[in-house]
Amino acid sequence: MPGFLMHAGAVVQCPHGAPSQIIPTQARVAVNGMPVALMTDQIVATGCPFTIPPAKPQPCVLAKWLMPSTRVTVNGSPAMVVAAPGPGPGIFQSADQIPNGPPIVGSVQTRVTVI
49 lies in which domain range? Predict the structure, then answer.
């Protein structure tokens, strides 16, 4: 499925509105001056307010991205792809690995599309 190539500067939030950051593992390939995001990279959320009854904190901590590029790899690892801004193809999890919802992509570079 074609989509936009994700990069470390993409704006991503957890489903509860907490800001997230893509932690790149490579610096060789860049888009708009930012490293391309790979499937081996982590998407880390900070400050998620999510709790479950009775007031047990279960904040989003880490996202698993589920849409790799089928044709673009960097150092042998597939790049992350997103179809469009909005709910992304992945799932945020708490520290206990409880699924909390999809990552929300606010903005991403639109110059490079991949399959």
Answer: 3-114
